[in-house]
Amino acid sequence: MAAFAWALRSLRSRPGQGRTLKEMAEATQYSPSALSRVTDGRKLPDTDVVQKFVSAAGVTDTGPWVGLRYQAQACEQELRSQGPDGASAEFAAALISTCHAHGIATGELGTAQELAASWKVSQPEPVFAAEPQDAPRPELDQQGAPRPETERQRQEVLGRRPRRSVWLAVGLVAVVVATAGLVKLVGGAGSSCGHVTETLRIASSTDKSRVLGDLAHDFGTRSSHGQCVGIVVDSIDSGIAMQALARGWDKSDGPRPDVWSPASRIWLPIARQRAHGAALDHLPEEAGPSVVTSPLTIAMPEPMAKALGWPKKQIGWKNLASLAGQPHFWKDHGHPEWGTFKLGKTNPEYSTSGLNATIAAFYTKTGTSGELAPEDLQDADNRKRVQDIEKAAVHYGDTTLTFLANLRRADDGNQSTSYISAVTVEETAVIAYNKGYPCGSASKEHGCARQKPPKTKLVAFYPDDGTLYSDHPYIPLNGLRPAQQAVADDFRKYLAGDHAVSRFAGLGFRTDPAKATAQITRGNGALPDAAPPRLDTPSADVLDKLLVAWRQLRKPANVLILMDTSGSMDEGIDKKDRLPTERSKLDYVKAARGPSWTDSPTRTKWACGALPTATRSTSRWPPWEPRPRPAAPTGTTSTPASSTSNRRARPPSTTSSTRPSKNSAATTIPTPSTPSSS
Question: Which terminus of the chain has fewer CB atoms gathered within 10 Å of its CB, N or C?
Fold first, then answer.
C-alpha cells in the first residue's frame, strides 16, 4: 500500500505537471484532506477515488492505475497469508512499468525483483512523509486526543501484525533488504562523488536518448582513477552521427562523443567504410552489446490494416511492393475514400528505420534471409520492386520523429487515412505513438511532448518474409582515458540491470528479440506473438553501394534552387568586414547544404545578384560549382525545373513564362542573417 501511495503522490507532483491538493480537490470533488489520505499509504483507496485522482493528475487512460490498485490489494493479501510470491512480483513489475510510462523516476525503489524481495522481510517502522505545504492536521478521537499516527500504534489498535512493505521516509523510498547480498550498489567501479572533473559523453539515437539521459541521471557520478566522472547524453540521429564520425567529428558537429549508441550496429561498418586516417582509428572494429532492440514493422492506420486482415493476416516486403504498384488499390478493396495507396518512408541516409526498410526491400529478389550480394543491387527485377515502393512514397521524413509528428498533425484533423496508407517504422515507435507520444518516442525535441492518444491508432504488420532489428549497440570509441573507460564499462552493466530494462520496456523496447515486454500488446498496436524471420545484415561495402542504389531509385522531384550571390553574401555573419580566414555567409550556406549542388534533369540553380569584385573575375557562381553555361538567348523559354543546364536568373517577370510543374518545388536559399541590400 505504501508503494502504491508513493506512486500516486509522485504522479501528482511530476515536474512541470504538478498539482496542489486544492487544485486536485476542485477537479475531483473530494476534500484536500481526503486526497491526502489517498497518498499516505495507510489504507488502500477505493477504485473511484483512484480513478478520479489520476484523472485530475492529467492521466487520460486511468485503466492501468485502477488495475495497479487491484494488484496492490492482491499483493497485500499474499504478504499477509505468506502465500506464493506471484502477486508480489507482478505488482512490483507493474508498479515500475506504470511509473515509467508516466515519467516517474523509480531509482529509489530499485529493480522489480529487489522491490518484491524487500516486502518479504520485516522492516523498521514507517515514517510517512506529509504532503508538502498542504498536509492535513492529525485526526482526533472522541476525547480530543490525537488518533494513533504510527503504523505500530494502528496495528496494535486493529490487532494486526506489522505489514511488510516498502517504507517511505522524508518523501523518499529506502529499500532495506535483510537478506545479505540481495541488494548492492550499482556502478561497482567506484562510489558516487561530488564535483565532476571528467565527463563521459554519450551520443545516443534520438528515440532512446531521453530514457538514456534519465538513467544516466539515476546512475549519478562515479569516482575512478582519481577523477569524478559525470555522464552526459546527447541526442543525435544515427545517420548524422555516422557521417560526423566518418569525417573525423569537428567542432561544427557539436560536442565529440566518447560512447556512441546508434539505433543499429549497421551504422558502424558504414562509418568505417567511409573513414580514413585518424577518423578510422577512432572507430572500433566491432560494435558493443545491445542495450535494447526493436523489430522493423510495416505500420498502417488501424482501419486500413483491418481491411487487409490484421491481426490474423501479415504482409511482407513483396506484398508492399505489389500494393504500392496498384493505383486503384483502395477503390478495388471497397474504400475509394482513402484514395491511392500512399507510403511513408524515412531517409536511409539518416534514419535507421529508413535504412533497414531499404535493405529489406532489396531482399524481395533473393527470397532468402541470407546476406545480400552486390549483384542483388543490380538485378533488374529487384530494382523494379524497390522502385515501385519508392514511387509510392508520397511523404518522406528525415527520421521517424519528424514523419510521425506530421502524421499526428494529420490525425488531429481526422486525416490519418488520407495522409498515409503505410509507413515503415520500428515496433517501439508504433507503441509510443499510440500511447500519445506524437514523435513515436519519449523525446525532448520540440513538438514531441506527450499528448492524449491519437484518434486513429497505428498497428504493426510483421513482414512474413523477414525483417531487421534496430539493436541499439553500446560502442565505446577508441582513445578513452582510463577514468572514462572504467565508468563507460560500469554504466553499460547498469543498463543491463532490471531497473534500466524496465525503463526501456515502458516504451515498448525489447531486451530479447524473441520475447515481448509488457507494453507489446494488441491494444498498443503490436502483436506479442509475432516472430518474423530475421534478415542478415549486409557487409559494409554492400551497405555503401545500397545507399548509392537508393539515390538512383528513389522518387525524383523537380527542384529549383534560388541562390543569393550578391555582395552581401561575401560578408561575415556578425559583422560587415571579415578577415580572409573567416567564413562568409555563402560559406555557411555551402556548409549547411553540403557540396553536392550538381545539376540534374530535375534540379536547377538560379543565381540572384553578383559576387563581389574580388571574386567576379573568377566566377559569378559559387566557387565549389562548375562555371554555368551562358543564359538562353532572349525570347527563348523553358521550364526552369526541368532544365539540364545552370542559368543565372534574370528578373522573374522576364526569365520564363512557364510555371514549374505540379511535382516541382522552388527552394530559396536566403541570407543567413539580414536580407541582401541589393
Answer: C
Provide CB contacts within 8 A for 369, sequence distance 6+: 363, 466, 533, 534, 535, 536
Mind giving me the DSSP string for 586-608? HHHHHHHH-S----BTTEEEEEE
| pLDDT in the model for residue 373 | 82
Amino acid 560: pLDDT: 74
Distance of CA 27 to the CA centre of its chain: 33
Q: Could you give the dihedral angle defined by the CA atoms of residues 249, 252, 257 and 260, in that order, rounded to the nearest 10 degrees? A: -70
**How much of the chain is in helix, strand and coil states, percent to nearest 5?**
40, 15, 45
Beta strands 198-204 and 259-261 are parallel
274-282 CB contacts, 8 Å cutoff, 24+ apart:
274/243, 274/246, 274/247, 274/544, 275/245, 275/246, 275/247, 275/248, 277/248, 278/248, 279/245, 279/246, 279/247, 279/248, 279/249, 281/478, 281/479, 282/245, 282/248, 282/249, 282/477, 282/478, 282/479
Q: What is the pLDDT of residue 261?
A: 97
Output the pTM of the full model: 0.59
What is the spatial distance between Cα 397 and Cα 348, in angstroms, rounded to a whole number? Answer: 10
Rounded distance between C-alpha atoms, residue 203 and residue 282, angstroms = 14
In angstroms, rounded to a whole number, what is the distance separating the alpha carbons of residues 406 and 579?
Answer: 43
Give mean pLDDT in consecutive 10-residue pieces for the chain, a chain of 678 residues.
Answer: 85 78 82 80 82 85 80 78 68 83 76 75 37 39 43 37 37 34 39 87 94 92 92 93 94 92 94 94 93 94 95 87 80 91 84 88 65 83 81 72 87 91 93 92 82 95 91 96 95 92 90 89 93 83 86 76 77 72 78 55 62 39 44 41 34 34 41 36
Distance CA 261, CA 301 (A): 30
Specify the amino acid at residue 674. Answer: T
pLDDT at 602: 59
Whether omega for the bond prior to residue 289 falls within 30 degrees of 0, making it cis, is no
Burial class (CB in 10 A: 0-12, 13-18, 19+), 55: middle
pLDDT at 270: 92
Nearest C-alpha neighbor of 185 from the set 220, 158, 211: 220
Helices (H), 329-421: 329-332, 352-366, 380-391, 400-412, 416-419
d(CA 70, CA 24): 23
Cα 72 from Cα 90, distance rounded (Å): 9
- How many Å apart are CA 136 and CA 149, to the nearest integer? 12
For 347, what's the count of Cα atoms within 13 Å in the CB-facing half-sphere?
A: 13
